[in-house]
Design goal:
elongated, single chain, alpha+beta
Length: 182
């Protein structure tokens, strides 16, 4: 197997600008600007084995996550380049103020370390954002703030667990379950 060459510095700089603009526009909720960074938007959420593919699906993903975490923000830890991707390690943070699928808001804050691969094709078009993170860390932070000495929180905790289970019971996207390199 041959190792692909890393692109020229000007190509790497252009990729990095695009990725940083993408991050900035997500925080601003400037969805049209975010979607302009790739002609066919695609997010692959590896922990859930879920793909949001196409404009409508990605806008739905934005709506759901920003309803749940309207103050969602990030803090970049490191940015690296590879032959076909910009790899960003970052902290994702937010406060659970709205429903996330069937999970009711807990009011808890989370801060989770993540890695996103912004994958580019041969024509230097962004084709995918592939995200890796520890779901359990996020869930623990969101539920960990509930005072379980208060009976009122027992029902909320039970509803959260039921909602989380319903989110994880879907069929994994077949595009993410194979071993083919993409």
């Amino acid at each position: 197997m041959s190792i692909p060459a890393c692109p020229a510095p000007d190509v790497l700089a252009a990729r990095q600008r695009l990725v940083l603009d993408h991050f900035r526009d997500e925080v601003r909720h400037a969805w049209d600007d975010v979607l302009a960074t790739f002609p066919h938007p695609r997010y692959e959420l590896i922990p859930q084995l879920v793909v949001h593919d196409g404009d409508e699906a990605v806008r739905g993903y934005y709506a759901e996550t920003r309803t749940a975490f309207p103050d969602q923000d990030h803090e970049i830890i490191a940015l690296r380049h590879s032959a076909d991707a910009v790899i960003v390690e970052f902290w994702l943070m937010g406060t659970h103020r709205g429903y996330l699928g069937k999970v009711p808001p807990t009011g808890g804050r989370f801060r989770v370390r993540m890695t996103a691969y912004f994958v580019f094709d041969e024509s230097e078009t962004l084709v995918c954002e592939r995200i890796y993170f520890d779901t359990l860390t996020m869930v623990r932070q969101l539920l960990g703030g509930l005072d379980m000495k208060r009976p009122a929180n027992w029902l909320l905790a039970a509803r959260c667990v039921r909602g989380l289970l319903s989110m994880s019971s879907g069929k994994p996207d077949s595009a993410l379950t194979g071993s083919a390199h993409r």
